[in-house]
């Protein structure tokens, strides 16, 4: 099987790059569809999953999880039924969905700690998309339609949460170059240029003579 994982700093345009790569290779793309799939499996809303994925729980959330694991007696039946899934459940269900997607054919997978989740596989090309902080903020201002101060806060907090998520569940440094085969500067290359470089690397890595991985 052939897999390209795309990890990305928030504001780097990594999701756009991944979509371009999947289109150029003719492969499936697994990005935000993970949210919907995990929500269906866990019986919750997509917004509940989107609010928790790639984000470590707060102190209050950790205390609630610990109390719930110790005893369910303090919860009413309604509250227990509405209680959101734990992060461990979220990670495990995400893993199953990723494995199912991989089994269906060549795949470009965005985020979700995929570079760590699939670190032991020899059929994966791990890519990291980055840019300077100023470029990340500028892109966020346009994409999220917020001012510079709000964008800076969003960029810093989101990237910190992603880093902590990978460290918590896989004990790996999210931004460490040694955890990737290729790091691309989207500020310098642009999303089109970054995608073209990744496509070239994928074709070389997987010996693709044609336009796709089939």
Give the secondary structure arrangement, pairings included:
Elements: E1 3-8, H1 14-25, E2 28-30, H2 33-42, H3 46-50, H4 59-70, H5 77-82, H6 87-104, E3 107-110, H7 114-117, E4 124-130, H8 133-144, H9 148-170, E5 182-185, H10 186-206
Parallel strand pairs: 1-3, 1-4, 2-3, 4-5
Helix pairs in contact: 1-10, 2-6, 8-9
Could you walk me through the main structural features you see in this protein, from its secondary elements to its overall organization?
The structure is a single chain. The chain is of the alpha/beta class and 214 residues long. The chain has one domain: Rossmann fold, CATH 3.40.50. Helices cover 57% and strands 11% of the residues. It is built from 10 helices and 5 strands; from the N terminus they run βαβαααααβαβααβα. A 5-stranded parallel beta sheet has the order 2-3-1-4-5, with helices on both faces. Helix 1 packs parallel to helix 10 and helix 2 (33-42) packs across helix 6. 35% of the residues are buried. Mean pLDDT is 82; it is low at 56-81.
């Amino acid at each position: 099987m052939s897999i390209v994982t795309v990890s990305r700093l928030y504001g780097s345009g990594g999701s756009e790059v991944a979509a371009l790569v999947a289109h150029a290779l003719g492969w499936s793309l697994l990005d935000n569809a993970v949210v919907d799939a995990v929500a269906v499996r866990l019986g919750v809303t997509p917004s509940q999953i989107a609010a928790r994925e790639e984000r470590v729980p707060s102190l209050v959330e950790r205390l609630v999880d610990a109390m719930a694991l110790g005893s369910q007696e303090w919860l009413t039946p309604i509250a227990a039924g509405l209680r959101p899934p734990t992060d461990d459940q979220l990670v495990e269900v995400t893993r199953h969905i990723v494995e199912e997607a991989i089994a269906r054919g060549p795949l470009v997978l965005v985020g979700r700690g995929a570079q760590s989740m699939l670190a032991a596989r020899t059929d994966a090309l791990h890519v990291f998309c980055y840019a300077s902080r100023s470029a990340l903020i500028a892109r966020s201002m346009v994409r999220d339609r917020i001012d510079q101060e709000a964008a800076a806060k969003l960029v810093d907090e989101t990237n910190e949460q992603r880093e902590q998520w990978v460290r918590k569940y896989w004990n790996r440094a999210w931004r460490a170059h040694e955890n990737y085969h290729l790091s691309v500067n989207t500020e310098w290359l642009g999303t089109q240029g970054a995608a073209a470089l990744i496509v070239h690397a994928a074709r070389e890595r997987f010996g693709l003579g044609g336009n796709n991985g089939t």
